Amino acid sequence: MRITFLGATHEVTGSCTYLEACGKHILIDCGMEQGPDEFENQEIPVAASDIDMVLLTHAHIDHSCKLTLFYQRGFLGQIFATRATADMCDIMLRDSAHIQMFEAEWKNRKGQRAGRAEVVPLYDINDAQGAINCLVGCDYDKKINLADGICIRFVDAGHLLGSSSIEIWIKENDVEKKIVFSGDIGNLNQPLIRDPQYVKDADYVVMESTYGDRSHGEFPDYVTELARIIQKTFDRGGNVVIPSFAVGRTQELLYFIRKIKEDKMIHGHDHFDVYVDSPLAIEATRIFMKHMYEDFDEEATKLVQAGINPIGFEGLKTAITSDDSRMINFDERPKVIISASGMCEAGRIRHHLKHNLWRKESTILFVGYQAKGTLGRIILEGAKSVNLFGEEIEIQAEIRRLAGISGHADNNGLLKWIGSFEKKPEKVFVIHGEDSVCQVFTDRLRNEMHLDAGAPYSGTVFNLATGAYEKECEPVHVVKTEKSLNKAMKANTPFARLLAAGQRLLTVIRHNEGGANKDLARFTSQINSLCDKWDR
Questions:
Q1: Is the peptide bond before 341 cis (omega within 30 degrees of 0)?
Q2: pLDDT in tens, 360-395
Q3: Cα(276)–Cα(311) distance, rounded to whole angstroms?
Q4: pLDDT tens digits for 416-430?
Q5: Are the C-beta atoms of residues 196 and 91 closer than 8 Å to each other?
Q6: Which helix (DSSP H) or strand (DSSP E) does residue 386 occupy?
Q7: Which letter, b or e, does each residue of 73-93 get, where b requires 16 or more Cβ atoms within 10 Å of its Cβ?
Q8: Distances (CA, A) of 453 to 157, 164, 279, 424, 469
Q9: Can you point out the beta strands (E) in 106-149?
């Protein structure tokens, strides 16, 4: 009965924690890192094919996107998530695979002319579909028996449609413990979705700390502020370009803009167009509407019951194909362009930045968290120019941030969440925050809440039964030498995939222990035949 901390330790992205209990190997989240890595992350200590199940807090790629890679490496277990999260993952995993395949194709077209070796996508659409087939949609607030001695429950975390905290009850060798994973805790009073629900008891808590060192401040009037930015930009003939996360933030913006149009808050540009340039955002919006009755908050539900689409309005246009996207920049009328990705690290937003960053008339409006080292963070922190598609672009556009708009709870919201426990947990583990933030928030938990709190580094192992660390790891900083970069490039070659397949074969062999002699003999013969064919 132990947990191993792997990803999002002293970093904001790449969430992944490994739980061993009752003979089962379980992952809580399995996400990609976004932006540059600061610390080395330890690998999961067992083969992907040995993982029995994954528990998913929500669909954002820094929590879910490595599921495709795990499926490719032999994972065939079940992925438990809320119903809305399962639907979101259906589109997000496929979208991520398409991006991987497109970027590999683009690099290979350029590389072929330069005589470089072929680039292999990290995973493809078949891997994504395989992971999607493993998803099991679950209801909020219902206990689910995963195995003898393991029971879970999803609780609404108020961060994203379908997001959850996860309660896990474990009974092993007459020892009973309860561990709660916070997931990403939501901000209060977000449009469309409910406020976070609070958990009352746990022996151990693993909680995020993204905004653990700061407050969002007084709750702003988003509608009025957004209308002011649009009006000012349109009056000088520019575009409002909004890098936005396709899932969650885009739908919130549509909710605000519907209100702006309904109340006629923009003057002189009465019928302005709003482009959503993200196939993923368009599909995600449909999923929001699919789950409106069970997952929307009271205010949005009242609109639905009155026959009003909370995120639809006249002048809303969508760009699905690449040609649709390109045509947006040929429209000279002032407009709002909402495009992914939210941190400007990939996707169509980079093209819109290329066309608008140099224009004094335009505004680039940031509406979400920008991880350290990402293009969005670089622009927001005052860069004079950036490189896009091999071209140096001078930044002359107005750079704005819609203050306070965040899907994450701030430090006060985090303290309120952990303060809801009626009895103090035995220990709180702080993850999912930048290095300094983790330490600041951990100190607040100790000094203000009088909790036994710590911020583990990747590879740290804690025994839940004994309440003691089995292994405490020190931070290992990433050193980006040419050798390490070459190693990273080789990590997904066809040969690396072959090695992963070999690991999976060994797992399958172990699973057949105790099988009928006739079946084992046939299996052995098939393996030997395969070896004879390929031995060199």
A1: yes
A2: 999 999 998 787 888 999 999 999 999 998 899 999
A3: 12
A4: 999 999 999 999 999
A5: no
A6: strand 385-388
A7: bbbbbebbbbbbbbbbbbbbb
A8: 21, 22, 42, 11, 13
A9: 135-138, 144-147
Give the closest residue to 220 by CA, choosing from 266, 256, 262, 261. 256
Per-residue confidence band for 484, with pLDDT thresholds at 50, 70 and 90: very low
User: Which residues, 6 or more positions from 441, have their beta carbon under 8 angstroms from its beta carbon?
Assistant: 209, 212, 213, 411, 414, 430, 433, 455
Contact assessment for residue 331 and residue 315, using Cβ atoms and an 8 Å cutoff: no
Q: What angle do CA 322, 278, 274 make, to 5 degrees?
A: 100
Evaluate whether 185 touches 159 at the Cβ level (below 8 Å).
yes
Q: What average pLDDT is seen over the chain?
A: 91
User: How many angstroms separate the Cα of 527 from the Cα of each of 48, 62, 76, 498, 511?
Assistant: 21, 38, 21, 15, 15
Please say whether the beta carbons of 409 and 185 come within 8 A. yes
What letter represents residue 403's amino acid?
A: A
Name every residue whose Cβ is closer than 8 Å to that of residue 499 and which is 6 or more positions away in sequence.
Answer: none
pTM: 0.83
User: Which residue shows structure tokens 């409006």?
Assistant: 365
Query: What is the average pLDDT across 19-34?
Result: 95
